[in-house]
Amino acid sequence: MLIGLDLLAAFDTVNHRLLLDHLQLEFGVTETPLNWLQSYLEGRTQYVKVGQYQQSAAVGVDVGVPQGSVLGPLLFAVYCCPVADITVHHGMQYHQYADDMQLHLAMCAKDLVI
User: In angstroms, how far apart are the furthest CA atoms of the chain?
Assistant: First the structure.
């Protein structure tokens, strides 16, 4: 059995504090590298621009990881790591790249109860 998950919108919902805590507690990232990642995530702004002259006011971005960056998919995978742990705990295998995850469960036809 194969289940495909597309978590594209989830890139925009990553909680920075939870991600940084997870990096520190689960992956052992501390001190300078953790501070560097915190500065990378925090203090970001975004705006909408139409044409050459119309631009909205910049607003702060408190959640999410930058898409199109090298670190974005890696940080998102770290953030989703608990999903992988739950998957393995329930006897399934998985493959993940950025926001695409495939869950695999191998079964024999003779073991199926219909």
Answer: 66
Separation of alpha carbons 109 and 2, rounded Å: 15
Contact criterion met (CB below 8 Å) for 72 and 22: no
95 DSSP 8-state letter = E
Which residue reads 């702060």 in tokens?
60
3-class DSSP state of 45: strand
pLDDT band at 35, cuts 50/70/90?
A: very high
Q: How many other CB atoms are found less than 10 A from the CB of residue 11?
A: 19
Three-state secondary-structure class, residue 107: coil
Give the separation between CA 35 and CA 3, rounded to whole angstroms. 37
User: Which of 44-53, 55-64, 78-87 is least confident?
Assistant: 78-87
CB-count exposure of residue 24 (10 Å: 0-12, 13-18, 19+)? middle
What is the distance in angstroms between the CA of the first residue and the CA of the last residue of the chain? Answer: 15
DSSP structure class, residue 41? H
